[in-house]
Amino acid sequence: MTPNVVPQPSFPDQRSLDHRSPARSGATRPKAILSPIRQRDVNGTPKVWLKNISLSYRVDNGTRLLALDNINLKVKPGEFLCIVGPSGCGKSTLLHLIAGLHQPSSGSLLVDDHKVGAPGTDRILIFQELGLFPWLKVGENVEFGMKMKGLSKAEREERVQYYLRLVHLSQFKDSYTHQLSGGMRQRVALARALATEPDVLLMDEPFAALDAQTRDLLHDELERIWAETGRTVIFVTHNVREAVRLGDRVAVLTFRPGRLKREYSVDLPRPRHLEDVTVAKSAREILDDLREEINKSLEEQYGLEAAR
Amino acid sequence: MKRLGKHAIFYAALLGSWSLLAALKIWPPYLFPTPKGVMEALYAGFQDHSFWIAIVVSMRRVVIGYAISVVAGTVLGLGVASNEFLEETMGGLLVSLQSLPSICWWPLALLWFGLNQNAILFVVFMGSLLSVTMAMEDGRKQMPKIYAMAGRNLGAHGFRLFWYVLLPASLPFIVSGLKQGWAFAWRSLITAEMLYMSLGLGQVLMMGRELNDMSQVIAVMILIIAIGYVVDGLVFKTIERRLQHQWGLTSAT
Ligand SMILES: Nc1ncnc2c1ncn2[C@@H]1O[C@H](COP(=O)(O)OP(=O)(O)O)[C@@H](O)[C@H]1O
Ligand SMILES: [Mg+2]
After folding, report:
1. Is 0.80 surpassed by the pTM of this model?
2. The predicted structure's pLDDT at residue A19
3. CA distance A145 to A196
4. N or C, which end of chain B has less CB nearby within 10 Å?
5. Residue A302 falls inside a structural domain
6. How many Å separate Cα A60 from the centre of its chain?
7. Cβ contacts (< 8 Å) between A95 and chain B: which residues?
8. Does A148 contact chain B (CB < 8 Å)?
9. A296 or B187, higher pLDDT
10. What phi and psi, each to the nearest 5 degrees, are found at residue A20?
11. In this structure, are residues B61 and B124 in contact, taking their beta carbons and an 8 Å threshold?
């Protein structure tokens, strides 16, 4: 084990978040009109707390598929947590559950020490498929959550402008989403989620389908926004290097049923880059741990004995 | 432009052969009217306002009947789509009811509403209800689930979820059903109007029959087709084009 990557079977102690320095700033950064939410972290109450969570899906033939098995996870306020695992291991299920879109079969979900079981605008999920509304223009997409929250028209206008500028999409306010590239759509989804000003941002493999340049750019953007606003981020990916690049902590999920295999604390200084040797080194270590699960998933998908 | 040319050639040929057949005088003009006679009938009908009145009366009826069936069909269709019991039971009934021409409701309508406009409205309503219901049911099922989830995730629920998310999200999948419902409503209306003398295009058509004026009959038939075509072009094509623009679909469904 390198000193950078420390396996953490238990909840990590109160690390200060001071190592967090603002990422490289963009050329034209909009002035913040919103005060960042500095999270209450006094008594160590987790922002999100998954307590013995299990979830099984009913499958067509009447049997049940155990997607999540006894997950115990605490996420600190303002923490950037990355969750990695092979595809099909239950990552999306876990985020849907935290978003309140799925109910656990057993166990409970606590947010700020309160049990929740329904969607709430304090937790906004950016879906793997994005789920932008094609019948609305880009600006109207960003406005949607605020409209549901009942914000005034003027306030909505102001924030739409602010968040579109934040993701560098101001000129595309009146475009429809199908007119945008993949990376731009990704940014619309980010703006739409941020505009509702959630405490917790849930991101489901948001950058998986992007080219390398766009992804690097969005990594920087996301890190900057996170550093500036102090939001809690739970970021799901199957890319370990991306997880190390972004996360304060990386949790590894096992394949079928999805269990928490191990947690790593990433103590590399920020800003980090995907190509950093230290990032690559830490990623390799986690990847070794993950390999077994990836092989299980490959066997399941392709029946590859060769995967061993 | 090329398409327009083809159309011009086709309709010129159609009109030409019609004129030729009529000019041969194989059948007497009261059985086989000339294009000129039909044009004159059209002109006369609009001149003495009888066609205008008929069009306004018929349009009013079809709009009212269709609007009611859209509202009822939406509720019914969404109900069937979201309830397993209803889907298994009523779903089948709806499909089998489709083979029933809506004019079969006429005797019942007369009994329930009396010989008046409401009986006609009921037949129009029944004519398009099934199409609209099944379109809604289909649309609700075909609509990707992600939109409902995204809506809930962003804080929409209840009526607002329906109005701001479910409805617009399913529109591309229901617009063809709505269009079909409109066509059925229009046909049912004309049929009912032919059975019951109460102004409207159907009655004007029957009047032509009673006066043995086949020119008027054909003139009204042309009107009925034209109105159906114009509504399709103005209303539904516009909606489809709009959806295409928003969703970026390659072809409107
Ligand atoms: N709605 C569902 N019904 C039944 N099974 C599901 C459903 N959604 C996901 N699953 C199954 O649950 C497992 C976990 O899925 P998911 O959370 O999407 O994994 P991941 O996001 O890690 O790829 C998979 O085996 C998947 O097939
Ligand atoms: Mg997934």
Report:
1. no
2. 40
3. 5
4. N
5. yes
6. 30
7. none
8. yes
9. B187
10. -75, 110
11. yes
Tens digits of residue pLDDT in A199-241: 999 999 988 878 888 888 889 888 988 888 888 999 999 899 9
User: CA-nearest residue of chain A to B243?
Assistant: A135
Cβ pair B32, B214 in contact under 8 A: yes
Domain C-terminal end among A147, A178, A197: A197
User: Does the residue A239 lie in any domain?
Assistant: yes
- Looking at the structure of chain A, the number of domains it has is 2
Residue A281 structural domain: 39-122+200-308
What is the C-alpha separation between A184 and B148, in angstroms, rounded?
22
Domain containing B76 equals 52-199
Centre of ligand 2 to C-alpha A172, Å, is 28
Last residue within a domain, chosen from A152, A181, A197: A197
Residue B96 lies in a domain: yes
Mean of the pLDDT values across residues B144-154?
93
For residues A137 and A125, is the Cβ–Cβ distance under 8 A? no
Give me B218's structure tokens: 């054909």
Q: Which two tokens stand for residue A13?
A: 């102690």
- Is the same domain home to A147 and A242? no
Report pLDDT digits (tens) over A118-169.
898 889 999 999 999 999 999 999 999 999 989 899 999 999 999 998 888 9
Helix extents (H) in chain B: 2-24, 35-47, 50-82, 84-97, 106-113, 117-142, 145-153, 158-161, 167-195, 200-210, 214-231, 237-247
CB B75 within 8 A of CB B58: no
Of residues B129 and A5, more confidently modeled: B129
Average pLDDT over residues A183-212: 90
Domain assignment present for residue A26? The answer is no
Q: Is B169 part of the contact surface with chain A (CB cutoff 8 Å)?
A: yes
Nearest CA in chain A to B172: A135
**B96: confidence class by pLDDT, cuts 50, 70, 90:** confident
| Binary contact (B150, A133; C-beta < 8 A) | yes
Which CATH number is A276's domain given? 3.40.50.300
Q: Which residues of A touch B139 (CB under 8 A)?
A: none
Q: How far is the CA of B153 from the centre of ligand 2 (A)?
A: 17
Mean of the pLDDT values across residues A41-63?
83
Distance B181 CA to ligand 1 centre (A): 39
Split into its structural domains, chain B has a count of: 1
* Least CB–CB distance from B147: residue in A119, A121, A133: A133
Both structure tokens of B58: 């018929």
* The pLDDT of residue A306: 52
Q: Whose CA is nearest to atom 6 of ligand 1?
A: A57
**B153–chain A Cβ distance below 8 A for any pair:** yes
Higher pLDDT, A13 or A101: A101
Q: What is the pLDDT of residue B189?
A: 93
pLDDT averaged over every residue in chain A: 82
Q: Are residues A72 and A178 in the same domain?
A: no
Q: Which of A120, A129, A176 is facing B146, going by the closest CB pair? A: A129
pLDDT digits (tens, 9 = 90+) for A82-92: 999 888 888 99
